Amino acid sequence: MQKRTPRILRKALAACVAALCLMAFLAPTAFAAEPKRTPLALGKTISVTLYTPPVAAHGPTYSFTAPASGVYQLKISDVLLKQTGSVEIQALDPKGEILGACYFGNYYWDYSDSQGEGCVTFAAKKGAVVIIDLIPSLDSWDDMFGWKPTPPNTLVASFKMLLTQMKATPIAQGKAATVKLTAKAPAALYSFTPSSNGYYSFTSSDSVDCDPCAAFYDGDGKLLKANDDAQVTLMVRDERGRLDERSDFWLGGLDFNISEPLKAGKTYYLLAGEFSDNACEYTLTVSPSTLSFAGGSMDVGFHKSAWLNDLIETCTYDTLVLDADFTLGWLGNPVEGWNRGSQTINIASPDGKYAKDVTFTVDYDFAQWFAVIFCGGWLWLPRTPVLMPGQTILEYWADQILGSLYDIRWEAEYRLSQVADVLDPMGWFHDSYYW
User: Fold this and answer.
1) Residue partners of 385: CB distance under 8 A and separation at least 6
2) pLDDT digits (tens, 9 = 90+) for 186-241
3) In 3D, which of 386, 362, 385, 384 has the Cα closest to residue 375?
4) DSSP 3-state assignment of 138?
């Protein structure tokens, strides 16, 4: 006779199975739950007060739906910031990618600012949802133990926020615009509508005691490119036609240079700023991209180097394409000659509008020929280091020795400071290495 499972046990097992199924059904929803966000209205000032956790582990969070495609700026004013307090404000898309961020903090005294200034700048497409997260932090100093966390529910900062849509100033091809940036207006927005298809370059110039930077967007607010200091990226096309980023070389100065292929009749936006949000004034121009060459050949010393931009007379493209790899050494900036010989390479703009065949020749100089003929240089010259342009072998080894001595001194000072911190943790008789 087969024994049956008691009824009460069957009910208990059924209840456990039902509970497990319910947990499996509800768990993904629970883990996917997002924090409650306060809607942020355009043009409406709100007051914010931030405390240390656990009142709000990451501070309050807001959401904003862009009413139109464009560039938006979050301004802060009436700031009261406690000593050693800091606040980070982030603008993110729903996937968590940062669209813009700013940080303000103070380490020596309570800080107040009633003037207000632009803080976070970001671009958004019409209907896009943007998340604004506020992250407060407050540390305190203890003479015995150094930095330590502040107790929960401690006031960090209070301020007001205002979200606005930036208005774009039209800029015409070939006409210069003067960019004037201040603490209250750390960025300026410009619009450009090309009359014909092609590559266009946006460049800054005439900056004094500041570092211009820029971001370039299409009409839907999509970031196409950002640039700080003007540089050119070399793209090498191998024998199979594949492009590989080889190196960057600096065009000099702190001005930016952005070049992009644009379509006629379509409006684009350039957000001009300063790298450290300092007050700044400079000239902005937009024109069709250009490239010209100063020569068609370059001599590179064996195990020496030469500046590639000596070949280039003018360049407003931020990318150049080379049609083949460099078998005689390294084709970057500078060009390094490792092997003797000659090689011709085509250097072109990315749209193919400008191109030139350049012959690179790597060979011994007079002193190296003398060493090869009379001192067996053909044996030991290939084992010498590659020198920078204008650098001698004595300068190279002097730099190596001085660098090693500096590393030894730094390590010794660091170790001695560690011992002193242990013997004198209060810092009464010595200055800490970290200060």
Assistant:
1) 303, 393, 396
2) 888 999 999 999 999 998 888 877 888 888 998 888 888 887 777 788 887 766 66
3) 384
4) strand
By the 8 A CB rule, do 270 and 202 touch?
yes
Beta bridge partners of 179: 282
- Are 194 and 279 in a shared domain? yes
Q: Is residue 19 part of a domain?
A: no
Give the pairing type, strands 187-192 and 169-170. Answer: parallel
Number of structural domains (the chain) is 4
Listed in sequence order, the residues at least 6 apart from 313 whose beta carbon sits closer than 8 Å to its beta carbon are 292, 293, 294
In a domain, 8, yes or no: no
List of long-range contacts for 172-175, beta carbons under 8 Å, 24+ apart: 172/286, 173/200, 173/286, 173/287, 173/288, 174/285, 174/286, 174/287, 175/285
What gap in Å lies between CA 285 and CA 325, rounded to an integer? 34
Matching residue, tokens 């190296």:
368
Whole-prediction pTM: 0.73
pLDDT digits over 336-346, tens only?
999 999 999 99
Query: What would the pLDDT profile of 235-256 be if each residue is shown by its tens digit?
Result: 877 666 666 666 666 666 678 8
Last residue of one domain, picked from the residues 102, 136, 164: 164
Q: How far is the first Cα of the chain from the last one, in angstroms, to the nearest whole number?
A: 86
Residue 208 CB partners (closer than 8 Å, separation 6+): 281, 282
Tokens of residue 9, six digits: 């046990």
Cα distances from 152 to residues 35, 54, 155, 249, in angstroms, run 20, 6, 9, 50
Same domain for 65 and 45, yes or no, is: yes
Looking at the structure, tell me whether residues 174 and 284 fall in a common domain.
yes
Q: Could you list the residue range(s) of the whole structural domain that residue 415 is in?
A: 392-435
Contact indicator for 129, 63 with CB cutoff of 8 Å: yes
Nearest 5°: phi and psi at 264? -60, 140
Task: Give the Cα separation of 431 and 435 in Å (integer).
Answer: 7
Using DSSP, state whether 347 is helix, strand or coil: strand
**Encoded tokens for 276:** 């450290």
Q: In whole angstroms, what is the distance from residue 108 CA to residue 384 CA?
A: 52
